[in-house]
Amino acid sequence: MSRLEITVGPAGGSVTGSDHLALQSAVDYVAARGGGTVRILPGTYLMRNALFLRRGVRVVGSGDATILRKCDAAVTPLTANIDWYEEFVRVQDPSPFCVGGGIWIEGLSPFYKGRNQIAKRTVVAIDGDTIHLDRAVREDYWLDPGAQASTAFPVITAEYVDDAAVESLAIDGNREHNPHLDDNHAGAIFIQDCDRITLRGLTIHDYNSDGISAQICDDLVVEGCRISRCADLGIHPGSGCQRPRMIGNTLRGCSQGIFFCWGVRYGLAEGNLIEDSLRYGISIGHRDTDNIIRGNTIRRSAEIGVLFRTDRGAGRSPDRCVLEDNLIEDSGRQGDGVAVDLTGVAEDVVICNNRLVDTRPPDPARRRIGIRVAAGVLRPVIEGNTCQGMDLDQLDLRQAP
What we know:
By secondary structure, the protein is mainly beta. It has 2 domains: about 40-45 and about 55-70 and about 155-395, Single-stranded right-handed beta-helix, Pectin lyase-like (Pectate Lyase C-like, 3 Solenoid), CATH 2.160.20; about 75-150. The mean pLDDT is about 95.
């Protein structure tokens, strides 16, 4: 079936430009005509707002020659109280903002102590120190608990958008010149309440939050992506994601490689290379059931190779998950180095046919442990694993001393 296809680029495209406005114009044009493909020509595109995906639109770059670079961020305090229904904010310094640009509004709730709240909006007009927004803020941002605005945002985003794809491009998160962002609201790519999104062949680096964050998204595919040096999680299949598929990705130098959040079910993490995570290679926990973690290579995780997280008791654990045919090497830098740590009260977990290796010399200050099983774990199947260079192949805390 023939569908519309257009190009966008600094020169020679159907749409001419090298910023977020040109990219968004192309995506919206194709979406308004029933969907199709936007091809982004080689070039560096300055992103002063996110690229918002649309239903039925496939965005395809020119490999690493297409670079979407997050602009330098600026932060300024609000100068007036804003109530939840208002569609503007007043700021001390309006100069960093532009019409069509992104704005991140953040502050503590005046009613719930310690609760941080965030609004992501687009600037539609600027009048002196007043920044007009595309829609109401939906929270109260008052001066006494503190509130601020910044030019922070995901580089690519979507909410309530199905059947879209992003392929073959690079994202430069410009981490050095951007604040750290809450990864439940941001990522180099952040999607929420979206089904059947495909992210393939992307290079993502140096974003000051997650590489890819997906919240309440079904049938997400992340394949063949290269994600490095993001401050938080490489790939974050977030709360409520069903059937995510993370296949053949390379994740290096993030806080955690793959993080199964809450209630992620029937997912597959297969054939990924995860190296030099600052905490865990893969982490799985709260009601993350019936997932398969297969054929991955996980090296040099600073704390634990694969962590089955402790949670708040039975019914909230990562039950019936399978960890098989993985190579997990040189886990932990301080204290015990554990390749697979099965904590909490998980039930019916299968850990089989994994190679658990430590190539480092013995150290009297730490133990090298292949698999550690917590006292509350029920009915695990642990078989066919091979350990090399371990002080303890398996430490089973269910057994009486």
